[in-house]
Amino acid sequence: MLTVLFSQVDFWVANFGSQAALLVAIGSEGTVLTDVLVDGSKVNTVNVTNATDIFTFSAFADLSGCRHSGVLLRPGEVSSDPDTCFSLNCSQTAVLQTSTCGPLERCQGNGICSLDSICTVTGPAVIDFHGQQNYVKDRCSYSLLRIPSVPDFQVLANFQERRRKDVSFLDSVTLRLNGSGVHIHLKQGGRVL
């Protein structure tokens, strides 16, 4: 809407890195209402009104924001989908950050990611989370799992000889909490130590 008796209306758009602003200025008495649209949706209005005794001259609007696949977010706004665990975060300086589950995780549908891979130990063979098959040739313990978000937690597979002396088999699995010194041994026959 533009209601001006006689005036020039100036529009300036300024960019400050990831941020932007719109300045609307008029030189005489009147009112200028400027709607700011993004994809046809109004996100802001700039109002400059100059009466005969009070001259505002100009007003501005912060146009900063983040866009992702047609979604507009204002600085400081977060949008997340718990069904997909996909999150958009528009920082205060209008920098978009996205996050989702890691490469070995899947979304449980409630905004929580969980490990979606299986490590299989059968006889002397270990099939890792990526489907790679490796063979254990000695009687050692091997780390099957470490989680970066829980750095003190580790799952170890302990291999020993069984009936055959030339092949090592899984003897037990150890859940180890390094910081607390807790070691839980899952032994053959369902024994837990």
TrEMBL record:
<feature type="domain" description="VWFD">
    <location>
        <begin position="117"/>
        <end position="193"/>
    </location>
</feature>
<protein>
    <recommendedName>
        <fullName>VWFD domain-containing protein</fullName>
    </recommendedName>
</protein>
<dbReference type="InterPro" id="IPR001846">
    <property type="entry name" value="VWF_type-D"/>
</dbReference>
